[in-house]
Amino acid sequence: MADDISAWEQHAGWWQDDFTDGADIEYVEQIIPMFLEHVSGVRRLLDVGTGEGQLAREAMSAAGVAEAVGLDPTVAQLRAAVERGGGPGYVRGFADHLPFGDATFDGVVACLVFEHIEAYRQAVAEVARVLEPGGRFLFFMNHPLLQAPGSGWIDDHILEEQYWRVGPYLVEDLSMEEVAAGVLLPFIHRPLSLYVNACIDAGLQIVRMEEPAPPEGFIAQAPEYREAASIPRLLFLHTVKR
Ligand SMILES: C[S@@+](CC[C@H](N)C(=O)[O-])C[C@H]1O[C@@H](n2cnc3c(N)ncnc32)[C@H](O)[C@@H]1O
Question: How many other β-carbons are positioned within 10 Å of the β-carbon of residue 162?
Answer without folding.
Answer: 12
